[in-house]
Amino acid sequence: MTTFLSRLSPRNLRSKPPIVPVLRLSGVIGQGGGLRQGLTLAALAGPIEKAFSMKHAPAVALAINSPGGSPVQSALIAGRIRELAAEKKKPVYAFVEDVAASGGYWLALAADAVYADKSSIVGSIGVVSAGFGFPELIARHGVERRVYTAGSSKVILDPFKPEREEDVEKLRALQRDIHEAFKDHVRDRRAGKLTAGDDVLFEGDFWTGSKALEFGLIDGIGHMLPVLREKFGEKVKLRAVTQTKGWLRRRLNFGSALEGFAADAIAAVEERAHWQRFGL
Are 195 and 216 in contact (CB under 8 A)? Predict the structure, then answer.
């Protein structure tokens, strides 16, 4: 039978160290090809919920290492983090590892405070679209491209047809809209902290963590464990939050492996291009 005195034993009187859940946001943002999984809200919804459901956790930490990707998925993931931070009334701290650029920086802005290493790459607040054109190649080999549409704008920027200026302008108009949304998001999340003008911050350039701190894009230079120890005590513990795969999902992934190899190879090349922009 448990007595009152036994409940007051030295072991029970010791306070438990605080535990901070760590949500890792690493990789290109958006749907991956084949079996490669990019960062999407569908994939991260569970881990995000789990991180904020730890009742006694004093905060949630984000480990950011992303060169960017889909602007929509960036907004969806960051938006869900902000919703739960407000609902659970928990502060969020982001820690940039190698890079938080473009959509990766959008994810970092989901935090109440952003930290980076002096040599981290931060920024790239802009929009980019890249591709290839092959009209001369297929003409040289006697290949004829046949596309039939209902609607004059159904097919634009076809890589197998000569580029049309009106198609390029449509793409640029889309990019301008997305860029404005990105700039508004940065101004909102970094209100009162930015020290450089739009002509510096919003032209797609990127900087080291030291320069990003100077411009007000981040709040400090520091790594996760030392910063969280300073905030929550030397005994603070970090707990990685991951998504577990059930037996059925593992079997389905295994079964689709052969079909995914070709798509994986293409996705790997595209992903490599994302990282190489930042010398990584």
Answer: yes
Tokens (6 digits) for 44: 């991260």
Full set of structural domains in the chain with CATH: 16-124+205-274 (3.90.226.10), 126-192 (no CATH)
Angstrom CA distances, 95 to 142, 169, 179, 225, stand at 54, 37, 24, 10
Percentage of the residues of the chain whose pLDDT score is greater than 90: 57
- Residue pLDDT, tens place only, 187-221: 999 999 999 999 999 998 999 999 999 999 999 99
Q: Sign of dihedral through CA atoms 135, 139, 143, 146?
A: positive
N-term to C-term CA, the chain: 61
Q: Which two tokens stand for residue 87?
A: 């609902």
Instruction: Please provide the average confidence, as pLDDT, over all residues in the chain.
Output: 81
pLDDT confidence of residue 255: 44
Contact of 115 with 91, CB cutoff 8 Å: no
Q: What CA–CA distance (Å, rounded) separates 140 from 128?
A: 30
Task: Compute the distance between CA of residue 68 and CA of residue 29 in angstroms, rounded to an integer.
Answer: 6
> β-strand 237-241 against 19-26: which pairing, if any?
parallel
Contact 238, 225 (CB under 8 A): yes
- What global pTM score does this model have? 0.78
